[in-house]
Amino acid sequence: MSVERPLWRALTAFRVLALCYAIARYCHTCGKYAHPLGGWLYLGALALWTLATLRRTGSALRCTKGFLLAELAVALTGILLTDALDTHARVVAGDNTLPSIWTAGAVLAFAIKGGWRWAAGASAVIGVSNVVERGALTGGNVHSIVLLFFVSTGIGYVVEVARGSEAALARALRVDAATRERERLARDIHDSVLQVLAMVQRRGGEIGGEAAELGRLAGEQEAALRALVRGAGAPGVAVAAAGGHGGDPAGGLATGPVNAPGGASDPDHGPQGPRDLRELIGRHAGPKVTVAAPADPVPLEPRTAAEVAAAVGAALDNVTRHAGPGARAWILVEDEPDAVLVSVRDDGPGIPAGRLADAAAEGRLGVAQSIRGRLRDLGGTAEVVSVPGQGTEVELRVPRRPGAHDAVRRHDRRERTS
């Protein structure tokens, strides 16, 4: 919500209250005026104007320059009419003008609409009209003029600062949204194109001949694409990943491009109801991958479940890539009241010290985007703990949406009764 909106609402309320005050004060002092009927006519017109233009001061869009000038003209008319309708003695003594504090509302409208410069100009006009009405510059009107000037310009300055802050915040949000979209695209590229290119390069080198040349070209394209992704602003730490989430025919870990379970490439995904994370992660189970999960469903929102499962697939890719085809992996799913924890542990050689930083410099996205980036976008965390010679453990933690347990139970009951 714009910070200006409360100010416009406050100005609308101020105009109405100031009108009531001006009428009440005139009721008390009208007997002292030389021409009281003229004062009543002006206050009647002021009341009609104020009530008819209530919506005008509801927003900056409706409070146009023409309206501001008309509002100022109404205030000036009341101030100058006071000298003609009141007695000379009361005017010289410094008695209130007909519009009284309603005049301040006109100046404040200038301040909120145009900032401190507009406020200063409107205050100067009102100040001059007060001096003309009394015929001299007295201590009383100097005090009122200075007070109105400082209050209105102060509010105008605050409005300008608030507008600048809002604009800066809007720019920051746009940059953040663009960065997140680039990171999402980088994850998709990593989980598909880069892994295919890496696989073509590896297999081409193994086959030799013309396939080796094809593998070399694929390697060059992979390096160029990684540099492009890195230059697009994908931050973080990464290690290379090649392979997919499903088991291969030999019962090893992943060997093909990753397609996030429950995502766009998953035909089993449905938008209705929460997803059981056990089902998605259970697809990774095989002779070399052990999955341990609770007996009860682990419900998550469809997108959240798909992203967590994709992060698990990326972690298994890293096991295949860096721990070797003979490595074993263990996946543990823990269902806590406020969060879901998934741990992926392997018995590989671990990650050498400094390897993650080197991978980040090379633009590799396995950990930075496919794992950490996914969990960060879900409001969760991903921790990587590796001890050389003792394997690596990736711990994923994603907060649970309140009421998800009850929702999945209702969903299961509907399926059983249908």
From TrEMBL:
What are the start and end residues of every segment in region (Disordered)? 248-278, 399-418
User: Transmembrane residues, as ranges?
Assistant: 34-54, 66-85
Enumerate the SUPFAM superfamilies for this protein.
ATPase domain of HSP90 chaperone/DNA topoisomerase II/histidine kinase (SSF55874)
Keyword entries, A-Z: Kinase, Membrane, Transferase, Transmembrane, Transmembrane helix, Two-component regulatory system
Q: DUF5931 domain location, by residue? A: 1-170
**UniProt cross-references to Gene3D superfamilies, sorted A to Z:** 1.20.5.1930, Histidine kinase-like ATPase, C-terminal domain (3.30.565.10)
Source domain of life: Bacteria
> Which Pfam families is this protein grouped with?
DUF5931 (PF19354), HATPase_c (PF02518), HisKA_3 (PF07730)
Which PANTHER family does the UniProt entry name for this protein? NITRATE/NITRITE SENSOR PROTEIN NARX-RELATED (PTHR24421), OXYGEN SENSOR HISTIDINE KINASE NREB (PTHR24421:SF61)
Q: What is this protein called?
A: DUF5931 domain-containing protein
Question: What is the originating organism of this protein?
Answer: Streptantibioticus parmotrematis
